[in-house]
Amino acid sequence: MTARVSTGTENALELRAVSKRFGALAALSDIDLTVQPGERRAVLGSNGAGKTTLFNCITGDFPPSDGAIRFFGEDVTGFPAQERIRRGLRRTYQISLLFTGLTVLDNVYLACLGVSRGRFSFLRPRRSSPLVATAEDLVDTVHLSDVAETRVSDLSYGQQRQLEVAMALAGAPRFILFDEPAAGLSPTERRELVDILTGLPAHIGYIIIEHDMDVALRVSDYVTMMHNGRIFKEGKPAEIEEDPEVQALYLGGDDSA
């Protein structure tokens, strides 16, 4: 497997000996992970491997039991989720968290407002508002301009997942965590998602958790394989895809995860 080589610059994300325990259960054990600015990383593994727990520790949804997390050089281990968001960290979830009674554009506008200085304003925005213009650009980025004025409840499931990506892009994030964005999508919708993710600005790095290995390997520069709360293997997409141990674990040869 190809080892990561430090560029000598500040890492976007750095985890050192991160563990998370729930009583006697060790969901994560001694995770060391380094992701460089602009890097696109896939985290793969069977159900129960610890992937979502890893995301929860990174975002501050709950703190690690041990270890340290640094975000662009700053120790954020004890920071609540909102402080990490203010520093440019974003996340999507497995279950859609959208305002289904509002339009696509309204959802993205509210996401932009929520990370702006005017987030406590109750004034209705004018069409000429810079935040509205930003929201329109983000809607276009995720290929939803044709349905910008459509109520979210009327969108297909795939379009709702695209909308989540737009909302994660609000406020000029520096790094995004995508939690199974292709889950439940049709083959056509998955191709659309791949186009969106590969078309994101180069300076925005991300980690994607994804059960669809084909999607994950197409949108990532490097892959981390997890098993039983630990890092099992790391390497470039082609190396991971061809590794016999990974194939045995990921394709059903080991159900212990």
- Report helical residue fraction: 25-40%
Number of helices: 9
Q: What structural class do you assign from the helix and strand content?
A: alpha/beta
CATH topology group of the largest domain? Rossmann fold
Q: Give the rounded overall mean pLDDT.
A: 89
CATH class call of the largest domain:
Alpha Beta
Number of separate structural domains: 2
Largest sheet, order of strands side by side? Answer: 6-7-8-3-9-10
Low-confidence stretches: 253-257
The count of β-strands is 10
GO molecular function, one term: ATP binding
Pfam families: ABC_tran (PF00005)
Protein name: ABC transporter ATP-binding protein
Keywords: ATP-binding, Nucleotide-binding, Transport
Characterise the protein shown here.
The chain is an alpha/beta fold and 257 residues long. The chain folds into two domains: 9-88 and 173-257, Rossmann fold (3-Layer(aba) Sandwich); 97-166, no CATH class. Helix content is 33%, strand content 23%. The chain has helices at 51-59, 81-86, 104-114, 130-141, 157-168, 187-198, 213-218, 237-242, 244-253; strands at residues 13-22, 25-35, 40-44, 66-71, 74-75, 89-91, 175-179, 205-209, 222-227, 230-235. It has a six-stranded mixed β-sheet with strand order 6-7-8-3-9-10. A four-stranded antiparallel β-sheet has the order 2-1-4-5, covered by helices on one side. InterPro entries: AAA+_ATPase (IPR003593), ABC_AA/LPS_Transport (IPR051120), ABC_transporter-like_ATP-bd (IPR003439), P-loop_NTPase (IPR027417).
